[in-house]
Amino acid sequence: MGIIQSPTISALNHFYEISGVEVGQHFYWQIGGFQVHAQVLITSWVVIAVLLGSAAIAVRDPQTIPTGGQNFVEYVLEFIRDLTRTQIGEEEYGSWVPFIGTMFLFIFVSNWSGALLPWGILKLPHGELAAPTNDINTTVALASLTSAAYFYAGLTKKGLSYFGRYIQPTPILLPINILEDFTKPLSLSFRLFGNILADELVVAVPVSLVPLVVPIPVMFLGLFTSGIQALIFATLAAAYIGESMEGHH
């Protein structure tokens, strides 16, 4: 005798099946009671190692008059300081330089690693290695950190009066102002993920068809757009933080 399911239960089962859909194959690790994407952890650790190693080598023997690697590192730091100062303001930007700099450098090196490093050489039991920002989990995590940062900045400067912004300039805008705090991380994460994924697909198609000369200009274009995406993410993150601290005097 069959069991008749209600339409509500059937709909819930249908949504549960959709939630299990995945794009491609993934290599998983079991860490504690959690299942994590090993590809993302491996490539993220490589990017972090590159950043830490480059910084350590560049400043291992600092000079009063910088040369070589130290000169390049100081140029990058000055660029990040100017970016943060422009978006957050002269008085408050100093404490946020490490956060914005970390975001920019991690995304920049991650994006370039997908275009320059031959991840395909390393074989995995399932799936394949790619740029960390080619995974939606990474971009959502970065966007969530940005959201937490601008809430922290606003609450630190204004206290509970920070939430008064939701009814400015009129309480009628309360739903829209609340919705804005959800759309900010969504737009940050999906913009970065979509552009990096599309860039890798655009490069992969001509490489598979004409693997010698034709893909080279496309790869250079990919490097340019990857750098632009890192700059956009860092600029918006700093702008959101600066916006949350406005009018605290």
Task: Describe what is shown at a glance.
By secondary structure, this protein is mostly helical. The chain has 7 helices and 2 strands, in the order αββαααααα.
Strand order of the largest sheet: 1-2
DSSP strand count: 2
SS-derived structural category: mainly alpha
Q: Write down the secondary-structure element order.
A: HEEHHHHHH
Low-confidence stretches: 1-5, 14-22
Number of domains: 1
The radius of gyration is: 22 Å
Distance between the termini: 72 Å
Number of helices: 7
Helix-residue proportion = 55-70%
Strand content: under 5%
Overall pLDDT confidence: 79
Sheet of most strands: 2 strands, antiparallel
Dominant shape: globular
Family: Belongs to the ATPase A chain family.
Pfam families: ATP-synt_A (PF00119)
Subcellular location: Membrane; Plastid, Chloroplast thylakoid membrane
Keywords: ATP synthesis, CF(0), Chloroplast, Hydrogen ion transport, Ion transport, Membrane, Plastid, Thylakoid, Transmembrane, Transmembrane helix, Transport
Description:
The chain is mainly alpha-helical and 249 residues long. It has one domain. It contains seven helices and two strands. Strands 1-2 form a two-stranded antiparallel ribbon. β1 and β2 form a beta hairpin. It starts with 6 loop residues before the first helix and ends in a 5-residue tail after the last helix.
